[in-house]
Amino acid sequence: MSTRKPPKSQKQNFFEKGGKQRPSRQKRERSPAGAKQNDAWLYGDHAVFAALANPIRKIKRILLTKAKQDKLESPQQIAIGNSGQVEIVSNDELSALLPDNAIHQGIALLPSPLREYALEDIPSLQADRNTITVALLDQVTDPHNVGAILRSAAAFNISAVIVPDRHSPPITGVLARSASGAVETVPMIRVGNLSRALDQLADMGFWRIGMDGRANQTIEQAIVGAEKIALVLGSEGKGLRRLTAEKCDLLGKLPMSHAIESLNVSNAAAIAFYECNRKNQL
């Protein structure tokens, strides 16, 4: 089945691309924009042990409370707890290093930033699969929502989550804890301009499918025949911006009851990711 873009006559909300393509960005490590020092810590079991299991993560410090050290169970966890790299601290000392009210479960680590990916890396993320799905978040600003979306992305084989540099949260402890370790397995690609990113994805053969409750077809119907899917999700309150929706080839909605108007963006993403993954498994 062809991965080329559909002809204009088959597309909804099609607008001609304009301007030049953004040049490739050099891959580099950098601190997330707007992140404070205490936000750079990862904490809680899922986030910490996933980071420790990631071979490309560079770890600067690992902190445990004595109570947590005594509760470690698996051989791998016990080895970490007994290694010379670990610092044993009090619960108050650990809490003082982290954001207010952080639920740290007695464990935290300070990592170097993850490798920064670019759109040009997407073909390498496809591996041996004939199909690929990526997600784009249009100004989804709540780190809990972005973390939950990453978690669902890991569960349903979404190859990357693409966000704008502005109006999206950095990878902090709050986001990483909400993602339950998925920040280590799902690349998060930051782009300077979401509109140009959508143009570039179209040139790469992706069908750009926006989620919109006013669409005249469901997501299941919209993704039929697409081998490369760029699923576009809007912000928590306003949904897709008009200009973003106009860049999409198709719009799709969830087949929801009239009893409720909409779902949280992370819940909607999970359902849409499931549909894309189910189609790809057929």
Task: Describe the overall structure.
It is built from eleven helices and ten strands. By secondary structure, the protein is of the alpha/beta class. It has two domains: 8-21 and 116-281, SPOUT methyltransferase, trefoil knot domain (Alpha/beta knot, 3-Layer(aba) Sandwich); 37-111, 60s Ribosomal Protein L30, Chain: A. Strands 7-6-5-9-8-10 form a six-stranded parallel β-sheet, sandwiched between helices. Strands 1-4-2-3 form a four-stranded mixed β-sheet. Strand 5 (132-137), helix 6 and strand 6 form a beta-alpha-beta unit. Helix 6 packs parallel to helix 7. The radius of gyration is 20 Å and the shape is elongated. The chain starts with 41 loop residues before the first strand and ends with a helix.
